[in-house]
């Protein structure tokens, strides 16, 4: 049985982060879509996004803040989940959609905004493992609430992989999150309260 483990990205090697982000839409975005204040493809270059991810993860430093977790199967880096304080995502606050402005005064909210799984490892349940890792990590760093913004396609419909990068509702539910809002036909807001704050 393969063993799944995870590390905060600052404790991972830079080559592990690169291995996860090397292909697909993640190669271009570098988990910057909600981090830059403007429109990512118009207002940033690939080099800027590459550098931003490296800086935000602080990989290889082992201390200080980081922007996500790297998941491993039998020691091989295969996945990523972005999780950090909600205020670190300026585009959550610059957009007009109500689901991005829910409970602005709620303290200790950490957002789970993106999942990446390497080609060859997809459809193997790794997003479920990564979602569970956010709960373990949230407890470690003292988050009060974890919040995600997954997609739930209508019955009989599916989503493409890059669209599902925000996660699917069932992935979060399996990790103990609850749906707290359904602001659009497909968008859900999910939350998991942690520790003594539950």
TrEMBL record:
Query: A single Gene Ontology molecular function, please?
Result: transferase activity
Family matches, as InterPro entries: Acyl_CoA_acyltransferase
Matching entries from SUPFAM superfamilies are given as: Acyl-CoA N-acyltransferases (Nat)
Q: Which UniProt keywords apply?
A: Transferase
**The name this protein goes by in its record:** GNAT family N-acetyltransferase
The organism named in the record is Nocardioides iriomotensis
- List the top taxonomic levels of the source: Bacteria, Bacillati, Actinomycetota, Actinomycetes, Propionibacteriales
